[in-house]
Amino acid sequence: MIGMFAFTIQADAAQIGIGTEQKIVQNPLELERQAIEEERKKEIARQKKIAEEKRLAEEKRIEAERLAAEKAKEEAEKAKLAKREAERKAEEERKAAERATAAKSSTSATQTVNATPVSTSTKVITVESTAYSNDVADNKAYGGRVLTATGHDVTDSIYYNGMRIIAVDPAIIPLGSKVHIQGVGDAIALDTGGRIKGHIVDLLVDSKQDAIQWGRRQIQVTVY
Questions:
Q1: In this structure, what are the phi and psi dihedrals at residue 29, rounded to the nearest 5 degrees?
Q2: pLDDT in tens, 121-179
Q3: Dihedral sign for Cα atoms in the order 62, 66, 68, 69
Q4: Which of 109, 117, 137, 218 is most buried by a 10 A CB count?
Q5: 3 state DSSP class of 204
Q6: CA-CA distance, 109 to 38, in Å (whole number)?
């Protein structure tokens, strides 16, 4: 028995010695599990990288759109300001042109009135009389002013040197002629009209209501 026990001890010792000298062989299933786990970790890392790249790309896209929108807004504002400035300049040029035209017409009218020969003899004619107002809304205005055909500004007054103003057919009553209108008083021919043809005299009044009230009537006009 003692011999057998000693042999057994020696045998166990030999097996242990052999076991310590050999490499430990892992379970194939464990190796496969570890490989799968490693692949899973790599896939997770890859997906995280893709997600991060997408996030950065999206941030860049949003920033680019924001910058583009700001630039477009700035360009639109510049264009709007440029348009307003151009319109302002055009309006100033238009008003300047109207003032120049009005001044030229006024000068021409003064020359016309002064140069028109007024007959020293008087004549009395019967005419059909109408009336018109100096309201800006009822007339073609020049820079907000109402001018007669001879260029006299009647926006704020229906008188010229204390005389009433009339529109006439220059073939019947020459422009610049001084007349006396029955029931009205002295007047001067400073205006014309598209419908003032023949023996018609259009009297300038303060308002459209006055013109309506005057109506159409036959009157005598003494031309000096």
A1: -65, -40
A2: 689 999 999 999 998 888 887 888 999 999 999 999 999 999 999 999 999 999 999 99
A3: positive
A4: 109
A5: strand
A6: 105
Structure tokens, 87: 């319109």
- The residue type of 148 is T
* Token representation of residue 18: 């052999």
Distance CA 123, CA 223 (A): 5
Report residue 128 as tokens. 């059909």
Give the side-chain half-sphere CA count within 13 A for 147. Answer: 21
Which one-letter amino acid corresponds to residue 44?
I
Beta bridge partners of 14: none
Asked whether 201 and 219 are in contact (CB, 8 A), the reply is yes
Instruction: Report the alpha-carbon distance of residue 147 to residue 191 in Å, rounded.
Output: 9
pLDDT in tens, 77-106: 888 888 888 888 888 888 888 777 766 655
pTM of the model: 0.47
